[in-house]
Amino acid sequence: MKDRINYGESMFHRLFGLKFFAATALIASFAIPVLAKESEEAEQQDAKKLFANSCSWCHGNFGMKAGKGGPKLAGITQDEEAIYNTLIKGQGAMPSFKNTLKPEQIRLLARYIKSLPNE
């Protein structure tokens, strides 16, 4: 008797499972973009703080204006990889950040600098 299938119960579980799955997928489709946006905003804030502590002395106003010795970075034409390499190696009076920042912090700075709008 254990091998007998109760089709009514099975159909109920299938239907309930399908509705539960559909509801979960619907909720996730709204929640994931919100969480991703919050994550991007948090990363942008982290990058801005890192820039303020490491770069703002020479590149004023979070990179939007030239500072004391460094050019305006907003609207820079270099791609993110070139900016990353400049941060690693240094350039002119700008020091290398290779020994003072972690690679992921340097990557975050490069992404931040590239994202600055040209105003």
Tell me the layout of helices and strands.
Layout: H1 7-54, H2 80-89, H3 103-115
Helix pairs in contact: 1-3, 2-3
Strand pairing plus helix content: what structural class?
A: mainly alpha
**Mean pLDDT over the full residue set:** 79
| Helix proportion range | 55-70%
Largest sheet: none
Amino-to-carboxy terminus distance = 77 Å
Q: Tell me, what's the shape?
A: elongated
Structure description:
The structure is a single chain. With 119 residues, the protein is an all-alpha fold. Helix content is 60%, strand content 0%. It starts with 6 loop residues before the first helix and ends with a helix. The model has no long low-confidence stretch (mean pLDDT 79). Helix 1 (7-54) packs across helix 3 (103-115) and helix 2 (80-89) crosses helix 3 (103-115). It has helices at residues 7-54, 80-89, 103-115. The chain is built from 3 helices and no strands. The radius of gyration is 25 Å and the shape is elongated.
List keywords for this structure.
mainly alpha, 3 helices, 0% strand, elongated
Summarize this, please?
Helices cover about 60% and strands about 0% of the residues. The chain is mainly alpha-helical and about 120 residues long.
